[in-house]
Design a protein that fits this description.
Two copies of one chain form a homodimer. By secondary structure, the first copy, chain A, is an alpha/beta fold. Chain A has 15 helices and 15 strands.
Chain lengths: 412, 412
Amino acid sequence: MGDTVDAMKILLVVCDGMADRPAETLKGMTPLEAAEVPNMDKLAREGQTGLMDVIAPGIVPGSDTAHLALLGYDPRAVYTGRGPFEAAGEGVEVRKGDVAFRCNFSTVDKGMNVTDRRAGRISKGTRELAAALNGMKIEDIQVIFREGVDHRAVLVLRGPGLSPKVTEVDPHHEGKVLVSIALAPEAEKTARILNEFTRKSHEILGKHPVNLARAKEGKAPANIALARGSGSPPEVPSFSEHHNGLNGAAIVGISLVRGLCRLSGLEVPDVKGATGSTDTDVKAKAKAAVAALKTHDFVLLHYKATDLYGHDGDAQGKSTFIERIDSALGDIIGSLDNTIVCITADHSTPCSVKDHASDPVPLLIWGKGLRSDRTDCFSELEAASGGLGHIRGHELMGMLTGLAGRNPKFGA
Amino acid sequence: MGDTVDAMKILLVVCDGMADRPAETLKGMTPLEAAEVPNMDKLAREGQTGLMDVIAPGIVPGSDTAHLALLGYDPRAVYTGRGPFEAAGEGVEVRKGDVAFRCNFSTVDKGMNVTDRRAGRISKGTRELAAALNGMKIEDIQVIFREGVDHRAVLVLRGPGLSPKVTEVDPHHEGKVLVSIALAPEAEKTARILNEFTRKSHEILGKHPVNLARAKEGKAPANIALARGSGSPPEVPSFSEHHNGLNGAAIVGISLVRGLCRLSGLEVPDVKGATGSTDTDVKAKAKAAVAALKTHDFVLLHYKATDLYGHDGDAQGKSTFIERIDSALGDIIGSLDNTIVCITADHSTPCSVKDHASDPVPLLIWGKGLRSDRTDCFSELEAASGGLGHIRGHELMGMLTGLAGRNPKFGA
């Protein structure tokens, strides 16, 4: 069937890490419960809510594995590591068979001890440093290296016989640079290449003019590139192939999710003011989603800051940011024609935990003419008795395309 | 264990396509919500309700795949097409390895263009036309052909090396008769046989006395048989083998579901006045179910008209027909001894969609001495918070036989 005249469009709003637990500073309410969210509440009242285990009960999702599930893929079958998503998020093309890493520019002493994992939070000169590493060849493997924001960078290895099953060289704290070890026989070459890349990065960056200048200024030199998060791109059908020809776009600031969406075949436009942080232009992103819905059947609108407040343990800040999202949604909902709106989170980041947790996330589905339930507002508590019941993340896209009238009939 | 003294019997009432969405013409209620159904409401109050994804969330079921799931089979593993169910519904024996089709008597011009897919809605003479095609042999394949109601007929191919993986010859609208194409190498012979059958049907029917007489009366000749819906019978254990020796019957008017039940090994008695349409004798079918329960452990009672009203977008008609079903159930429930009553739908056919949809269906299970929940009436909205939660269609039979005390203990 696909896109018939009556098929509806789909707006999926993901508030990263929004789901939470009762917070003492909010009189025992969650940030979502404490927030004044008249627009979300209206959609909940007119539509249906439920709870969602984004991967499965008890699984603590990362933002990458969670978004794979939300886009309809099975992360337990296809996920190897965050590297390819970070690389694609920085605009690096990642191909089947590549192994990609997230990297830090770091500072090591002569004994290869890491003295500053973020090289004095370097912000300038990383383009030149990255260019000095990019394009080198180790054995028959091509090295692609690109700078990211501040001390961040990405590394892609390309060539025959690579495998993502290697340990990291980044010690994740002060201490000796690690030697990468193959976790499977087929990864021995990759570990060898990665160790040689690490050695060469130190050799090249140590004498780079950018670092010589930093030394003069008394700043920590960015004299090594430390890799972690090895992974290969998931071998999956594109988002469109996976969902009966549905064409989609994603409005998202952070690199990890941008890259994941790009690798899935979603269009990821740049939005002015979208920072992927607490200072993002919440309303500009919502407007960009409306614009994208004019040319796409499906739009993912992602807000990151809810998760950041969760990691900081700032329940009040999180609650206030949820109110900002609600206000932005209120501005656009009236202009959405024949569109299903779904609001949810990719995982819980309870302020009391300051990290991701396995608690299921609230889910809201609203569309003109669709069923309602007895839910009165949008919250973790209310959604627990919502009409959608308890679902899994990988089921969500099929439910949405089904309700949108985009799924073919199975049988007669 | 099977049939012990205490085991209960099971009446499964399936109202085809009954589940719906809020209808504007019913003040925002669904047809089930708007209907006065005192008997269903009483069973809901005393028993339990819930929601059921008949195949899986987001999947739009056909009536055939849905009934496979309701009878406890996995349609995604065993379904190939509707043909064998249609054929069995017309009383044609379908064997393992056969490939069966639903057919139309149609009218084509000299250029093999379909000018009337239903041959002037022919209603007389089809037995003679079918007899002229039945029994022919093409290569080493036996052709079994039988007329159905009006312009409908069924075709069964029997012999070595057949496969259901062929495209249809029926263009489904006016236009050139299609050439069947093999969708897999093992289906090349079947496509060849089907194309030759189509050619021969035109040759034989074109000069048949029934059509010569129709021509004289100015009626469209039924001068070709066009096949679609190819399938082979599912290779599954019988219903009785599948459910610990449960023996069953089905009271059902429409060919598709009759055939499916027959192929599963259910007894399918003829019921006077059961038409599979809006003019069916609702009460006669309910009485036939009671009679069948005297000699069987399990009876499926199927009403089709709810689906027909859904396809027509007639919410009021659907609601009124649901009231007729409720009244018929009211007549029989008092006479059911030691019997679990389950009422549900095989899929949603929302009047606003006029076609099947993926929305889950309401489910009601009642039996003397079984648990109750907080449900007050039988509706999509109420069932969303019912005590049965959200289940899948293929789980239903096991739940019912379990409650009926018919399942063996697993373990010690």
